Amino acid sequence: MKYDLKIHHDLGLVIKLEYKLKTLLKNMDALTISLESVIDLTDEQFYQFCRKNSDLRIERNAQGDITIMAPEGSETGMRSASITVDLGIWNRKTKLGFTFGSSTGFKLPNGSDRSPDASWILKERWESLTTEQQAKFAPICPDFVIELMSPSDNLKVTQAKMQEYQDNGTRLGWLINRKDREVEVYRIGKLKEVLQNPCSLFGEEVLPDFVLSLAEIW
User: Fold this and answer.
1) Alpha-carbon radius of gyration of the chain
2) In this predicted structure, what is the pLDDT of residue 21?
3) Domain with 142 in it
4) CB-based burial of residue 82 (10 Å sphere; 0-12 exposed, 13-18 middle, 19+ buried)?
């Protein structure tokens, strides 16, 4: 689809689309915008752009391309919230780190900005960041991530995202594919493992004693 971009000053240089983002997304699942020939957005400008469109899911890859996604459906959102709650309950008991939901953005070491559906960071790593870094898209890769695929998500795109997390330091990752009832497990330094219709997932040494039941996720 052809679209135009215009640049204007407002809390720094912020991008606006000539077409309204919500109108564009009515007929598609995601919209990717390449800005390389237009502008090189700073981290602050990208952060402000995301804030101005907080009702949308926005990510940026290492090349600077921005992907804008419509909000997830209610069914997927319910299951995603359940996963985050379970992870948070475990973390309250262990006090080993911090749990984050799907609206949290992280600046990965390779320069991309990602928002996993659920994530967790070891306490010592999170507290090593400054207050200013924690307040925006923290420059850190989570120790643990979950991506819960919605019916409209592309498997190859999600797999590439999981590999990116692993390459940037994520120690354990779960890609939950409800459609095929499969879970891909990503462990740092190892090949991914594909589980067929598992009943539960285990946090292993990264999340000691954490067990996620998939009975309500499927």
Assistant:
1) 18
2) 52
3) 74-213
4) middle
